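step=predict obj=Acyl-ACP thioesterase n=280
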Amino acid sequence: MIPINLVFFFVIAIIFGVLITYKCTMMYARIYSQFCQGEDMYSFDSRIRYSEVDSNAVLTIESLIDYFQDCSTFQTQDGPATMEYLRSKGIAWVLNSWQIEIKRLPKLCEEVTTGTIPYMLKGPMGLRNFFMKTTEGEMLAVANSVWTLFDFEKGVPTRVTPEIIAAYPVEEKLEMEYLSRKIDIPDGDSRNGEEIPIRRHHLDTNNHVNNGQYIRMALESLPDKTLDVTHLRAEYKKQALLGDVLYPVVIRSNIGDNKVYTVSLNDKDKEAVCIVQIWA
């Protein structure tokens, strides 16, 4: 007969071995994940909120862009080149263009990971990818963006500083189709949308219209607001300020089998402030 104290010893040893095995497995899983995704890749986890979905309980495109913008802001605020640092130098990042590919928009309460990948810093330019994926690894959306570091005191682009280079480790860019940041106005049927006066809720910390607000304006200007959007592009040409008025011009065309709406948000002089192109 085996002594009870020896049985107790074997049980404790087995439990201890299981715990060690579990911890090692989790550690190697994290290492593998970092190896596959890049240990410097910046991301954050979230859950789709009721305030972020449409009438079908699906994440809105505007909220998707908010996630992307929040991700890059979180990375910036984690330092060393925070918004406060940039403001002290009289400089700021200005977004030139978006290119977004949407595979599927997540549903209410779905858990997601949003990440960003700076892949080039050169002179005054910064190129950055974004992605949103499920916790199971399903890629929901990917994006490319082009930025310029701008000196607002001198009114010219300026080179990235050592602090900025340290803040954004450069990695390999995502696999996606990379289009020109310039958007040509196509031929097609056009209509004028309702004029949009710029209110305080449109502004961001730089006191001009936030990049995502232009996307909201363009989507609201569409005659069909139930489109299943697969691609979205935006080219930012000027800054709109409090008290300005934007005049949307919507052009409908086709690219292959895709129905395409190009929305030019114009100023009072009929010059484009932002051009947004929506594929469905």
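step=describe
The first strand starts at residue 42 and ends at 47.
step=end
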